[in-house]
Design goal:
Radius of gyration: 25 Å
Number of helices: 10
Structural class: alpha/beta
Shape: globular
Number of domains: 2
Length: about 280
């Protein structure tokens, strides 16, 4: 009986060992499959963050004369660097209901690149020129407007963490390198290199949304609720991206304000549909 018991135990461990090996093989196959999907079937995206060149309602602005010929030439040179990505689709920060208009304006520019714009933005100076250089046919807008009160911490009696909130917004230089905050003396290329680093994109989410979680009353979540609106806006913009008729053969260039770029970086990193290329590889 004892020998029979030991035989049964041995058989059980053998079966369990075989199943474990099969599971390991299956997991390895899945990981190999992920690599294959990433290289063959995912849609490549160059997720490019910028400040707004022209007039903007954003609370924070960067000094830049979009009508200055030298600045325009520098923007075109950056577009030339980005053209190595060879995008088949351009996506910009304008609402989808403007798609017909932005397509017409883009095609007019391609036909006459010497045309001038009364109030040129990053769309005209960067995206249009990039598309022209690459013979890109389609341009779409994915913006979704939603207001939120990023000043809520100064409008209520903050009973959550006023020390952190106030110290952060009044002395940002204590938390970040100075060139994050004061870029006016830098060239456009230097500004955009900083803007597209991981550190700066993290800063964009913190300063625009996450710091508001330090704001609220004892019984409320006023700051967190305002931050949630900004998350919601970016999720809706991402949903607009997912509505577009993109295929695995497309190479997509997305140009938006850096806080949106920061959210999209996180969304795309987790996506089974998209693959994000390294933006800094195209800024030399």
């Amino acid at each position: 009986m004892k020998n029979t018991y030991l035989i049964h135990i041995s058989i059980l461990f053998f079966i369990l060992g075989c199943k474990e090996n099969e599971a390991s093989k299956s997991q390895a196959t899945f990981q190999d499959g992920e690599t294959a999907i990433e290289t063959k079937d995912k849609i490549a995206i160059l997720n490019f963050g910028t400040f707004h060149f022209g007039q903007t309602s954003d609370a924070n602005t960067t000094e830049f004369d979009e009508k200055n010929k030298r600045n325009q030439d520098e923007a075109k040179e950056i577009a030339k660097q980005l053209s190595l990505f060879k995008p088949t689709v351009l996506i910009v920060e304008t609402r989808p209901e403007n798609n017909l208009q932005i397509q017409e304006e883009y095609e007019a520019y391609v036909a006459n690149p010497k045309m001038t714009f009364e109030q040129p933005s990053e769309i005209e100076l960067l995206a249009f020129e990039l598309g022209r250089l690459c013979n890109t046919k389609k341009i779409y807008g994915i913006d979704h407007k939603m207001s939120y009160n990023y000043n809520i911490g100064n409008e209520i009696i903050n009973q959550v963490d006023s020390n952190m909130h106030d110290a952060y917004y009044t002395r940002l230089d204590n938390f970040y390198p100075n060139n994050f905050l004061v870029q006016d003396s830098l060239s456009l290329l230097e500004k955009l290199k900083i803007t597209n680093t991981k550190e700066y994109l993290d800063f964009m989410i913190e300063v625009n949304a996450d710091m508001l979680t330090h704001v609220g009353t004892n019984e409320g979540f006023e700051g967190a609720d305002e931050a949630a609106k900004y998350y919601q806006r970016n999720l809706r913009m991402y949903s607009n991206l997912n509505r577009l008729p993109l295929t695995k053969d497309d190479r997509v260039f997305i140009l938006m304000g850096a806080s949106h770029t920061a959210f999209f970086r996180d969304f795309i990193d987790r996506s089974p549909k998209y693959k994000m290329v390294n933006t800094l590889n195209y800024l030399k």
